[in-house]
């Protein structure tokens, strides 16, 4: 079968790719944006015979109106989650993250708090959980680290020295060095 007869059968607007190894094959085209290149192709939810590129598919998935958040009633979300207690219910991203932060089944082993933005495991006792505040507080009071610049033993955050990765810097010294380097480069 020649390229002319394939083009005649498919129509002039349908792209055809000619490959010496595979012969003729029909190139896919996104039904929404008409793109011919994507990481992954998906079937159009309204018409399975049509194709969608990954970008258009994910955009359409986020704008689906057949889902409704069980908490706030929203019909669009960037990501949908199942409810923590009832898997039949859907939650929007905002409500899900809020529910995870306020889970009553977790309790901080240090202060006894039951809500936190993020939960961490206690390094000394992995069975216990730590709230974000206690975790950051304990991290700042570490005595096994010492700043190579100012010799401080406590910092809200520790950074590796960019020149010698075995050395540590406190947050203040790291930011100071970073700004000095930026001024030197401009």
Structural commentary:
It is a single chain. It is flat, with a radius of gyration of 28 Å. The model is unreliable at 1-12 and 15-21 (pLDDT under 50). The strands form five sheets. Strands 1-2 form a two-stranded antiparallel ribbon. With 186 residues, the chain is α+β, with helices and mostly antiparallel strands. It is built from five helices and ten strands; from the N terminus they run αββββαββαββαββα. The termini are far apart. It folds into four domains: 3-61, no CATH class; 66-101; 105-140, no CATH class; 144-186. It has helices at 3-10, 54-62, 93-101, 132-140, 171-185, and strands at residues 16-19, 23-26, 41-43, 51-53, 80-82, 90-92, 120-121, 129-130, 158-160, 168-170.
Sum up the structure in keywords.
single chain; 186 residues; alpha+beta; 4 domains; two-stranded antiparallel sheet; 5 helices; 10 strands; 27% helix; 16% strand; flat; disordered N terminus
Query: What is the total domain count?
Result: 4
Main pleated-sheet profile: 2 strands, antiparallel
- Report mean pLDDT, rounded to a whole number: 77
Ends distance: 63 Å
What is the number of helical segments per DSSP (H or I, 4+ residues)? 5
User: Which stretches of 5+ consecutive residues score pLDDT under 50?
Assistant: 1-12, 15-21
Helical content (DSSP H or I, runs of 4+): 25-40%
Number of strands: 10
Strand content: 15-25%
Please trace the helix and strand order, writing H or E for each element: HEEEEHEEHEEHEEH
> What class, by secondary structure content?
alpha+beta
Rg measurement, Å: 28 Å
Strand order of the largest sheet: 1-2
Question: Rough shape?
Answer: flat
- What is the subunit organization of this protein? single chain
């Amino acid at each position: 079968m020649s390229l002319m007869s394939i083009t005649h059968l498919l129509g002039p607007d349908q792209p055809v790719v000619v490959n010496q190894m595979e012969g003729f094959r029909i190139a896919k085209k996104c039904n929404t944006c008409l793109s011919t290149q994507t990481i992954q192709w998906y079937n159009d939810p309204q018409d399975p015979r049509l194709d969608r590129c990954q970008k258009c598919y994910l955009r359409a998935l986020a704008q689906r109106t057949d889902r409704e958040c069980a908490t706030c009633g929203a019909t669009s979300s960037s990501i949908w989650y199942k409810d923590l207690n009832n898997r039949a219910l859907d939650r929007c991203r905002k409500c899900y993250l809020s529910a995870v932060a306020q889970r009553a089944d977790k309790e901080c082993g240090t202060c006894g708090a039951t809500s936190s933005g993020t939960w961490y495991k206690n390094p000394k006792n992995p069975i216990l959980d730590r709230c974000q505040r206690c975790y950051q507080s304990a991290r700042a009071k570490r005595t096994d680290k010492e700043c190579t610049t100012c010799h401080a033993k406590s910092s809200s955050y520790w950074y590796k020295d960019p020149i010698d990765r075995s050395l540590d810097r406190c947050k203040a010294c790291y930011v100071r060095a970073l700004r000095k380097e930026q001024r030197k480069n401009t």
